[in-house]
Design goal:
single chain, 1101 residues, alpha+beta, six-stranded mixed beta sheet, four-stranded antiparallel beta sheet, 36 helices, 32 strands, PEP5_VPS11_N, Znf_RING, metal-binding, membrane
């Protein structure tokens, strides 16, 4: 039985008991013969007692036998428990069966304890553990009732003389090995000679976990504190009283049983519930707790027995004569249907105390012998004639249908709880209850109260459709709000709710809704920071309805940076607030949003936006200055700053120190954009600040943090212990170039300031004189390729602006246009700089397209394109626009000619291209020709060909040079002829020697008389070589077969030949020499024998 059994009304007033037919009758037949009752119950009059156990149903008879029945009521085990007597009482716990009976040879009642899980090997009956007499006095008295605790620790026996015996520590006695009679000594705890004992029951200790689980279950009127007690109590019921005795715990045995109620019960009319003793009297049913009487249920009529089945209370009335005028509808129906008003009948009633209704009421003409609550959960009624009836409980769905037909939805909900239905089924009952109130009762508020309990189980659209009418719009708002509170709403629900607010102009409820905190602050089981509504939908609907303030609040609070900026810029047009908000974002968020809205901000706040972009590209983080309450509207902040410090005061830029103020109270004055101009920025000021992330107080870092909560502020970090942040990669300035299309003045300021603050580079002459503090530069991006590309892009763009916008103002605060000269000077300084990176080809195209001659010449020189410089001036001379162009050609020839001789040929062609040039530079032409001849830049024939290509130059111009050259050439020819003659004579001599040596008919005669080594007179033995060298044999080392004097010369010649043969295979080297030397290389190859026929034959072989 569950704790619901102890629930009921709070007083003894007779309730209007509703009666239902929740049970159907089925007659149980014998498994072997379907025409009769089970075999065991045919001799019903011989059955002494029936009990339910964990092993099955136990049936005892007057012959002392016990039968164990299965679900088919077929005996699976039988044994004689009390020989020659009968079994009077049985109770089982944990497979241990305790029987009380009588035997012929013993006058006193006999107690026996059996182990149903073990068999006696000799008799195959359950193992008998103990057997002893129950004899508290010399006069034996019959046992009236028995009770056994759930853990077998205590056994209580009630006698007909009003005595109650208790056996303590029975479990310990059974666990120890001993004789069959070894039982704990019983103790008499109560004696009442005039009041027989009619009922016993143990109130078990309440587990601590059950105390919490039972909090949600209904309790009787008196909230007993014993439910929190861990002691074991014994209820004692007599014919006149109900007493309670503490069986365990502190104080056990120190006091006798105390009366808790002065109303007793007859034998069989008291049964132990889960926590209370249930006493059935003719006038009512009482629940007795250990502290006194509890609930009472008015149910008049005679009662012969009361039983517990699950959560039901089964009451059996004694036989009586039916009457058509009886108060019970069941009796009247019996008389009306049978017409028998003379026979005796018994009535069985099944109560549901928790829900206060009758689940079944029936009559039995043969009387009721026993109520069997089977261990498998079914209820049976055994009649006196042996007929066994099964009370089949209807399924819960059938019960609920019966209640629905009678519109008893409240009772259906209570029944669902006692039946432990799952939440979807309970929600469906609430739905049907709501439908009933909505359609039949027109109780819309009550219906909505029921629909609210279906959240999470019933589709919201089912409820919403019912309340779309304008008259029921407030109920709809309530439902939608609860839907959002529980986190079950989708975007459509949020849209509907917000549209309802906006149409009703209910700004207060709209404020309350959008300021609802996340569910994690109310329910710990939910995910952290989970909103009770769809944030994107809420922002969208507020924007569409024109509630920009509310949409901005949501976007700002939940860090939807893009949405907030879109609202402030596109919808509300609050550019200053958007710019202020951007300063509170981290680098990543500010980067993307400025890329999207930078052009709009520049159009409305050019100076402030430029400063912000400068900060993003030059500092590692942007921070918040001042203390701003999160709940303070941004408009209020902007109004407070209007007319004073500009929005740039919230930048973490380099600023001069503000004296007379502390870091926590100082108001940082914002500079104008003019102060950010590179040409007006003092390098010493930058150096003195020491850090770009400071604003007047050195070492005061500011950290980017997420938007604070509603009650938090943004404090300025203290001076002590500044946190060390890891270096962050700064943003690329290239992201924002496109935003300055219509703001070229700000573009120049932006690029110049970024270059100076980020890389310490400037095109301004004044700024270049000052050294830049290395702390300002990015140490982690010096070798970064991406940072290098950013530098190149910045200076390429600046160079283009210097050359394209000659009329740009030097300061945004000045209206006087600036001359072209300063900007061109800046461009020239950029081109001349050895440290400023820029794309040379890009710069060359710019200078060419803008006609910037100085830049063109400088770039050509830096690129080594000296010929292009000369051709440029040549073209200018040809155009006639530059009179000194020819002089520039000669000037640059003097600069580049020594290292690039081919330029002389180009200049010679230029000077002889027209008579005017030749007449002006006659002497220069002669010098050029003389230099070409001396340096061998061009052969004389080439010079003549250059001069003879047109009719400008005459022979007289080169007459002297030609005469001198011819004389020198003739001398060289004569010298060459002499060398050729000498080589021919030497060759003839060598050939003659070879011929003599190879002539076998004319022997060689040696006339040498002295040794070529020691110089002494030759004597035998001596050695003569064909080269006319003779030696003593002793003077030759190791009998060498080669002449020592000629060996070195011959070795050199052989080494030369070997090298030439190796070079013959190196074709790539030969080709490169031919490309460089031409005919000279070929002649040299012939002289080394590279093309000899013998070599070719050797290679072919």
């Amino acid at each position: 039985m569950t704790s619901n059994l102890s629930a009921g009304t709070a007083n003894a007033s007779a309730p209007a008991w509703r009666q239902f037919s929740f049970f159907d009758l089925e007659t149980v037949k014998d498994i072997h013969g379907l025409n009769s009752s089970p075999e065991i119950f045919k001799a019903t009059l011989e059955i002494s007692t029936v009990a339910s156990s964990s092993a099955g149903v136990l049936v005892a008879d007057i012959h002392g036998s016990i039968h164990l029945l299965n679900k088919d009521f077929e005996s699976i085990s039988s044994w004689v428990a009390h020989t020659g007597g009968r079994v009077t009482h049985m109770v089982e716990r944990k497979g241990i069966l305790v029987t009380l009976g009588e035997e012929n040879v013993i006058q006193s009642p006999l107690i026996k304890i059996w182990d149903l899980g073990k068999k006696d090997k000799r008799t195959t009956a359950p193992l008998l553990l103990r057997s002893a007499k129950v004899q508290p006095s010399n006069r034996p008295h019959p046992v009236s009732t028995i009770a056994l605790s759930s853990n077998l620790s205590h056994l209580a026996i009630g006698l007909g003389d009003g005595t109650v015996l208790i056996y303590r520590h029975l479990d310990q006695s059974l666990a120890s090995s001993g004789s069959l009679t070894a039982l704990p000594k019983p103790r008499t705890i109560h004696e009442s000679p005039t009041e027989p004992i009619t009922g016993l029951g143990f109130r078990e200790p309440i587990p601590h976990s059950f105390n919490h689980a039972s909090d949600a279950t209904p309790k009787h009127s008196r909230e007993p504190t014993e439910h929190n007690n861990t002691n074991l109590y014994l209820f004692i019921v007599t014919t006149n009283r109900v007493l309670v005795y503490q069986a365990s715990g502190r104080g056990t045995g120190s006091s006798a049983a105390t009366a808790v109620d002065e109303i007793g019960a007859a034998l069989g009319c008291a049964v132990m519930g889960e926590f209370d003793m249930i006493v059935a009297r003719d006038e009512a049913i009482y629940m007795c707790a250990i502290e006194g009487r509890g609930n009472a249920f008015a149910y008049e009529g005679n009662k012969s027995a009361v039983h517990i089945h699950s959560s039901y209370l089964v009451i059996v009335s004694p036989p009586f004569v039916a009457s058509a005028s009886a108060a019970s509808a069941t009796i009247r129906n019996f008389v009306r249907t049978t017409g028998d008003d003379t026979s005796e009948i018994s009535k069985v009633t099944v109560f549901d105390p928790a829900n206060k209704f009758v689940a079944y009421s029936g009559t039995f003409t043969q009387g009721v012998r026993e109520i069997i609550s089977a261990p498998w959960g079914d209820l049976y009624i055994l009649s006196n004639n042996g007929e066994l009836v099964h009370l089949v409980e209807k399924p819960t769905s059938a019960k609920l249908d019966m209640l629905y037909k009678r519109s008893l939805y409240g009772l259906a909900l209570n029944l669902a709880k006692t039946q432990n239905l799952d939440e979807p089924h309970v929600a469906d009952i609430h739905r049907q209850y709501g439908d009933h109130l909505y359609s039949a009762k027109n109780d819309y508020d009550g219906a909505m109260a029921q629909y609210m309990k279906t959240l999470g189980w019933v589709q919201p659209s089912y409820v919403i459709r019912k309340f779309l009418d304008a008259q029921r719009i407030h109920n709809l708002v309530t439902y939608l709000q609860e839907l959002h509170t529980r986190g079950l709403a989708n975007s459509d629900h949020t849209t509907l709710l917000l549209n309802t607010y906006t149409k009703l102009k209910d700004v207060s409820r709209l404020d309350s809704f959008i300021r609802t905190e996340s569910k994690s602050s109310r329910e710990e089981s939910l995910a952290p920071d989970e909103l009770p509504f769809d944030l994107d939908t809420a922002i969208r609907v507020c924007r569409q309805a024109g509630y920009f303030e509310h949409a901005g609040y949501l976007a700002k609070k939940y860090e939807r940076h893009e949405e907030y900026l879109r609202i402030q810029i596109e919808d509300a047009g609050k550019y200053s607030e958007a710019l202020l908000y951007l300063r509170k974002l981290g680098m990543d968020a500010a980067e993307g949003n400025l890329a999207r809205y930078g052009r709009a901000l520049l159009s409305n706040l050019p100076e402030e936006t430029t400063e912000l972009l400068i900060d993003l590209c030059t500092t590692a983080s942007i921070t918040n200055l001042g203390v701003i309450d999160e709940e303070t509207p941004i408009s209020a902040v902007s109004r407070s700053t209007a007319g004073g410090a500009s929005y740039l005061s919230y930048l973490s830029l380099n600023r001069n120190t503000i004296t007379g103020q502390t870091s926590e109270t100082a108001t940082i004055a914002a500079p104008s954009v003019k102060t950010a101009r590179v040409d007006e920025t003092d390098g010493d000021t930058i150096k003195s600040s020491g850090n770009l992330n400071s604003d007047g107080v050195s070492g005061t870092p500011r950290n980017v943090s997420p938007p604070p909560t509603a009650s938090s502020t943004i404090p300025i970090a203290p001076l002590s212990a500044p946190p060390k942040e890891p270096p962050l990669k700064r943003l690329s300035p290239r992201l924002y170039f496109a935003h300055f299309v219509d703001h070229m003045e700000q573009f120049v300021i932006f690029l110049e300031t970024v270059a100076l603050r980020r890389w310490g580079q400037s095109a301004d002459e004044k700024s270049q004189k000052h050294s830049i503090n290395s702390d300002l530069l990015s140490s982690d991006s010096d070798n970064d390729e991406e940072d290098r590309r950013d530098q190149v892009a910045v200076w390429n763009t600046l160079l283009e602006l210097y050359l394209t916008l000659p009329q740009i103002s030097s300061s945004s605060m000045s209206s006087t246009p600036q001359d072209e000269i300063p900007l061109r000077e800046k461009a020239l300084r950029v081109l001349r700089s050895q440290t400023i990176p820029y794309d040379t080809m890009h710069a060359l195209i710019l200078c060419s397209s803008r006609g910037y001659t100085q830049g063109l010449v400088l770039l050509w020189e830096k690129m080594g394109m000296y010929e292009d410089v000369l051709r440029f001036w040549m073209e200018r001379d040809k155009e006639g626009t530059t009179p000194e162009a020819s002089m520039q050609v000669l000037k640059h020839l003097e600069l580049y000619g020594p290292s690039h001789p081919h330029l002389y040929t180009l200049v010679l062609r230029f000077l002889t291209s027209s008579p005017e040039l030749l007449s002006r530079h006659m002497a220069d032409v002669k010098q050029v020709i003389q230099h070409i001849d001396q340096e061998g830049i061009m052969p004389p024939l080439g010079i003549i060909q250059v001069l003879s290509r047109n009719s400008v130059a005459s022979v007289g111009l080169v007459k002297e040079w030609l005469i001198e050259r011819i004389i020198r050439e003739r001398a060289e020819i004569q010298a060459d002829h002499e060398w050729v003659g000498s080589y021919r004579m030497e060759t003839a001599t060598k050939l003659k020697q070879v011929e003599e040596l190879s002539d076998p008919e004319h022997p060689k005669v040696f006339h040498v008389t002295r040794c070529s080594t020691c110089g002494g007179q030759l004597d035998l033995p001596s050695i003569h070589f064909m080269c006319n060298h003779s030696y003593h044999q002793r003077c030759l080392p190791d009998n060498d077969a080669e002449c020592p004097n000629c060996a070195r010369e011959h070795g050199v010649i052989r080494e030369i030949r070997r090298n030439n043969e190796q070079l013959a295979d190196q074709h790539d080297l030969f080709v490169s020499e031919v490309q460089e030397g031409g005919f000279k290389a070929l002649a040299n190859a012939f002289s080394r024998g590279l093309f000899n026929q013998s070599r070719l034959e050797t290679v072919a072989a």
